[in-house]
Amino acid sequence: MYQYNQVDHQVIKERVAQFRDQTQRFINGELPLAEYLPLRLQNGLYVQRHAPMLRVAIPYGLLNSAQVRKLAHIAREYDKGYAHISTRQNMQFNWPALEQVPDILEELAEVEMHAIQTSGNCIRNVTTDQFAGVAHDEVTDPRAVCEMLRQWSTFHPEFAFLPRKFKIAVSADAEDRAGVKVHDIGIKVRRDDGKIGYDIYVGGGLGRTPMIGSLIKEKLEGEFLLPYLEAILRIYNRYGRRDNKYKARIKILVKALTPEVFAERVQQEFEIIKDGDLHTSQEKLEYYESFFKLLVEPLTADTLSSVKATLEADKAADPAFANWVQRNVRPHKLDGYANVTLSLKCTDIPPGDVSDDQLDAIADLADEFSKGQIRTTHFQNMVLTDVQEDQLKALYSKLVPLKLATANTGYITDIICCPGGDFCALANAKSIPVAADIQQVFDDQDYIYDLGPLDLNISGCMNACGHHHVGHIGILGVDKKGEEFYQLSVGGSSKDNASIGKILGPSISREDIAGAVKKVIDVYVEQRHEGEDFLSTLERIGTAEMKERVYAKPAS
Amino acid sequence: MPNQHLNGSTIENNQWSIAPEAAEQTTRLAEQTQLQVADASATSTLQTLETWATAAEKKNLLVSGDAEVADIEAAIGAAGQAPEVIFIDFPVFTDGRGYSLARLLKRAEWFNGKLAAIGDVLQDQVYFFWRCGFDVIVPRHDQNIENCQKALNSFSHVYQPAVNNPATKENKALEAEPA
Ligand code: SF4
After folding, report:
1. pLDDT in tens, B93-152
2. In A147-276, where do the E strands start and end?
3. Residue A246 to residues A1, A165, A209, A250, A438, Cα–Cα distance (Å)
4. Residue-wise pLDDT tens for chain A (556 aa)?
5. Cβ atoms within 10 Å of A437's Cβ, excluding its own
6. Residue B124 is part of which domain span?
7. For the stretch B113-122, what's the b/e string if a residue is b when 16 or more beta carbons lie within 10 angstroms of its beta carbon?
8. CA-based nearest distance A157→chain B, Å
9. How far is ligand 1, taken at its centre, from the CA of residue A35, in Å?
10. Domain-by-domain residue ranges, chain A?
11. Of A8, A38, A157, the CB nearest to B131
């Protein structure tokens, strides 16, 4: 992974000192609230329902064990003993005291971490596939590009006060696990005849006006990536709307101009700057690549066959383990290794929450099994990569008592859920208890496997932090005369076939929402053809029957 | 607060007046800054794009952050005289359009004068102004000019090229630790 040099360390220290001064001026009353606000936001600090919330950046979801131990320490010392993984792979603390935040940032800086640009109207943390660099289906490791973008966007002096927040995702895998079409800029890495190129999507996004991004540039070369992105940002900064916060995202500008005209304007600017300071030499590209090497070596044929044999024997001996392997373990680039999802979706804990003790244990497990590295995922889980397959059983045995071995990755109970009304000041309704209700309705493991992979996403308000639009089933909290109601939508997807879910009908009360999900699923189960997944069935039968079932008046 | 600004890293006294009277923009600027409209004690006057053609003194041009470069060029071309300083107005500090305008003006062939930031100009934005090529920074009336001056040195290194760059981190890294 990328390692700080002396310069990075110094800059991060300078940033902490700057923020300490800003916070002190605010506390002393020298800096008005309105002027402190964007400063604290650009350091990841929100003011929430009960206390501030600090969002720590996890660049493209990659962590080492020392960092995870530090996060555990922060959860324990400054918070209530847990942290929350956000849908953009970052880590959130819900209870820090404002005056302690500079201390937390100083502690984070010791392990090369920070909270820079995790909020505010600036370029946010770049996200990617949680299996980047180890995925069996990627065209190349996208992390070098992510790191290049991270550095370019960090304290970018021109883009600190954009019309609105700005999110970039990069994906190099076959199914698009990063959701590039639902980001302000999505970068899809491709390989044609051995040559790497970048397709640039712009203007996707969720929120109030969900949109699928438009492809405005194909096969851009790596050397021109930064100038092209700078051109996009410059056009957006100049012409994005600033009169209405709900119309300020780049998607509105792209739509207003049309993607073609927007692309033309970007191209004009790009032509002027493409060979300038931002042009990236091969040497520089290789410099970024040098930080992201495979951590494991190919196994010899003999070792490989014994590794495989051990795994098969372990599976045969323990059906629960075999089931977990089937559900939570994904193939690795190299045969004989595997990538393991640690599910943070067991029923009695809010989705994405992880305790200080769990974090410490995960750090130890990473040292023992996965070369000291850990990933966070936008599905709010964690991942250990590079685990040799004959070690899976040992890892599993240690995950079970930690409650990190729930075998539900990708299934209906692997719910994406924002913090919602329990924590978030912007919420219309709670989301965590709804997730718990649904997990309770779907508590039969065999039944959920039979349903096949299903994305169920919940947001507590229009801001869509829980990505409800792109869930196969999406739930959105709305406020109806002071009461919590929920809008139910079906048919969304964030993957390569990205689409926005359709709202089924009038919003549904808190008591009825889990039951309504069950009814939708019942229709799917009754109507599906052999082996047909939820989205395909939905495409074939439409929503009429689901609607009818969900909104049927109870027989009197 | 003293009636001062930064010229480069030097603290200097303001010597400007704003024209014309009774325009919305200039009235606001007179509130936000230490400058005044039609100040008889001033030695020089900021003119807007509208007044530029007819202004007797063509030294300081005041433009909005959303001004089009082509319009500025046309107005200057029509008047036959380029300003010494173009002042970019930041009506509220969260309106970042002026930063991009600065980048565009900095590279315009027809302009090699100075750029000034004026309006809701705060200490915590000084570093960004400087990096985007502003030569002159006229802080809001309540800002401490010494703190603004210090803010020019907020960071020892930067992560991306802009107009004014101390050591860029990337180049430094390449020199120091070849991959
Ligand atoms: S979706 Fe709304 S309620 Fe949920 S975290 Fe985002 S802003 Fe808060």
Report:
1. 999 999 999 999 999 999 999 999 999 999 999 999 999 999 999 999 999 999 999 999
2. 168-171, 185-192, 195-202, 214-220
3. 37, 11, 8, 11, 31
4. 998 988 899 999 999 999 999 999 998 999 998 899 888 888 888 876 667 889 999 999 999 999 999 999 999 999 999 999 999 899 999 888 888 999 999 999 999 999 999 999 999 999 999 999 999 999 999 999 999 999 999 999 999 999 999 999 999 999 899 999 999 999 999 999 999 999 999 999 988 888 999 999 999 999 999 999 999 999 999 999 999 999 999 999 999 999 999 999 999 999 999 999 999 999 999 999 999 999 999 999 999 999 999 999 999 999 999 999 999 999 999 999 999 999 999 888 899 999 999 999 999 999 999 999 999 999 999 999 999 999 999 999 999 999 999 999 999 999 999 999 988 888 999 999 999 999 999 999 999 999 999 999 999 999 899 999 999 999 999 998 889 999 999 999 988 788 899 999 999 999 999 999 999 999 999 999 999 999 999 999 999 999 999 999 876 5
5. 16
6. 4-176
7. ebbbbbbbbb
8. 5
9. 23
10. 135-289, 416-551
11. A157
Between the CA of A102 and the centroid of ligand 1 the distance, in Å, is 25
The atom number, within ligand 1, closest to the CA of A428 reads 3
List pocket residues of ligand 1, CB cut-off 6 Å. A 418-420, 424, 426-427, 459-461, 463-466
Q: Which of A238, A239, A270, A283 to mutate to test the interface with B (most CBs of B within 10 A)?
A: A238
ipTM of the complex: 0.94
Q: Look at the pTM and tell me if it is higher than 0.80.
A: yes
Distance set, CA A33 to CA A22, A25, A368, A468 (Å): 11, 10, 47, 32
Report the distance separating Cα B125 and Cα B120, nearest Å: 10
Split into its structural domains, chain B has a count of 1
Any idea what DSSP says for residue A492?
-
**In chain A, which residues have their Cβ closer than 8 Å to the Cβ of B97?**
237-238, 242
Amino acid at A552: A
> From the CA of A494, how far away is ligand 1's center (Å)?
19
Angle at A402 (CA atoms; ends A397, A405), nearest 5 degrees: 60
In sign, the C-alpha dihedral spanning B128, B130, B132, B137 is positive
- Which positions ≥6 away from A553 have C-beta within 8 Å? none
Identify whether the C-beta of residue A163 lies closer than 8 Å to the C-beta of residue A236: yes
Question: What topology is assigned to A135-289 in CATH?
Answer: Sulfite Reductase Hemoprotein; domain 1 (3.30.413)
A426, A469, A486, A487, best to mutate for ligand 1 pocket (most atoms within 8 Å of CB) = A426
Cβ within 8 Å, pair B154-A18: yes
- Which of A5, A151, A162 lies nearest to residue B177, judging by beta carbons? A5
| Beta bridge pairs of residue A199 | A188
Q: Are A84 and A353 in contact (CB under 8 A)?
A: yes
- Give me the architecture of the A416-551 domain, per CATH: 2-Layer Sandwich (3.30)
How many inter-chain contacts (A to B, CB under 8 Å) are there?
106
